[in-house]
Backbone:
């Protein structure tokens, strides 16, 4: 399946797309349904018999008490549209939802406001850098809601396709994200096109047992619908970021580059540049049949190494 569409003029800022996903994720993480939100905003716990008085004070992102005032009521429809990016994300409402109702910490709430451009930060219309608390979970939430993902990597198997053992072998160096596995469930495999540098099949990350398991897992995901393409030696120049993903989120293309945390892009300029990189790489990649042959060959090589090591140990 080809990637969804080229970047469109008038695409929303990337921070807005990520913030809408973060808002929905925070509600779901709290175990709250959309139908509960008006009650929560009025100060009523879900399923409470009668609503108490609406709280007068909100919290600022730094956790301090805000000026006393009453927030306007908000409907289920409005919250739903906010979570899909079709309704303006007002900072005061975002603070109220995240801090007072969804139990998000003050620093994480500040990071979401940063994405909207409401905080002093490195931010532009089509590019935003997300390095605040919760950045990894926000990225994972975007991947979960994406209806299609095209991912190019030159260093390792994409995180959304990793086995737990392969993931653990990579994450030991970053304790902040060591407890998070972004692997998508197998039923989402058909959403993914993975463009993998040929050296990924050679790097023994975690050792031969882990690599053999990971490569066999890729082959299983291909049966589930994932499209796997190997970029051969002599292909296009290595992308300077090392990794880039294109996600169809709420009908828009969102680009993510992970290096030191994550940078997001949208639109025909910043997004168009990333789309061109992916198009060039995909055009140079081996066919799906050739790619699967290379993956099977690499998996067999690691399995042979495992068997040889076991036989040597048994002597």
Residues:
């Amino acid at each position: 399946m080809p990637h969804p569409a080229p970047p469109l003029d008038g695409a929303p800022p990337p921070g807005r797309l990520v913030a809408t996903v973060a808002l929905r994720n925070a509600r779901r993480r709290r175990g709250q349904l959309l139908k509960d939100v008006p009650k929560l905003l009025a100060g009523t716990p879900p399923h409470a018999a009668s609503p108490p008085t609406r709280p007068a004070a909100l919290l600022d992102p730094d956790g301090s008490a805000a000026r006393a005032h009453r927030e306007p009521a908000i409907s289920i429809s409005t919250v739903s549209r906010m979570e899909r990016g079709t309704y303006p994300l007002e900072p005061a409402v975002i603070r109220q939802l995240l801090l007072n109702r969804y139990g998000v910490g003050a620093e994480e709430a500040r990071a979401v406001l940063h994405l909207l451009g409401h905080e002093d930060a490195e931010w532009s219309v089509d590019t935003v850098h997300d390095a605040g608390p919760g950045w990894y979970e926000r990225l994972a939430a975007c991947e979960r809601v994406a209806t299609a993902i095209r991912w190019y990597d030159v260093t390792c198997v994409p995180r959304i396709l990793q086995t737990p053992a392969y993931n653990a072998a990579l994450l030991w160096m970053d304790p902040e994200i060591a407890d998070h596995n972004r692997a998508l469930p197998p039923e989402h495999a058909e959403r993914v096109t993975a463009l993998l540098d040929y050296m990924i099949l050679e790097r023994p990350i975690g050792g031969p047992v882990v690599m053999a398991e990971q490569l066999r897992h890729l082959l299983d995901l291909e049966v589930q619908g994932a499209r796997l393409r190997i970029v051969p030696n002599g292909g296009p120049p290595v992308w300077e970021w090392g990794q880039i993903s294109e996600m169809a989120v709420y009908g828009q293309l969102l680009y993510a580059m992970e290096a030191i945390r994550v940078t997001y892009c949208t639109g025909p300029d910043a997004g168009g540049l990333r789309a061109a990189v992916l198009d060039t790489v995909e055009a140079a990649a081996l066919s799906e049949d050739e790619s699967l042959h290379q993956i099977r060959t690499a998996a067999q090589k690691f399995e042979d190494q495992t068997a040889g090591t076991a036989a040597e140990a048994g002597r």
In short: The radius of gyration is 22 Å. Residues 288-313 form the longest helix (26 residues). Strands lie at 57-59, 65-68, 127-130, 149-153, 192-197, 227-231, 243-249, 252-259, 261-265.
